[in-house]
Design goal:
The protein is an alpha+beta fold. 39% of the residues lie in helices and 26% in strands.
């Protein structure tokens, strides 16, 4: 399967980049690498995450970070990552 980051997930990545680029460039690189690695793995093993808190979604923790990915498997050819969230963030917040 192919993996794609949808608009909200792309916005989440932009926000992570903006927040960490000045504060911790090395931390930013580590986090983005971990997100890329786990998203690549989802392309091969889309069910490795757990059932999500929002119906129809799945979630997976990003190893060695406080982030997690929210994704769907609605398309038979794609893993759609819909959010990239920090574990301290209140989720769900009336969103899918």
């Amino acid at each position: 399967m192919h993996v794609r980051f949808l608009d909200k997930a792309e916005a989440d990545l932009d926000a992570i980049n903006e927040y960490l680029s000045d504060k911790s460039p090395q931390g930013l690189t580590r986090i983005l690498t971990a997100i890329t690695t786990i998203s690549d793995q989802l392309g091969y093993f889309p069910l490795m995450g757990r059932e999500g808190r929002v119906e129809g979604t799945r979630e997976i923790s990003v190893p060695r970070t406080e982030y997690f990915l929210v994704y769907t498997l609605d398309d038979p050819h794609y893993v759609d990552i819909i959010r990239v969230l920090h574990g301290r963030r209140k989720y769900p917040r009336d969103e899918k």
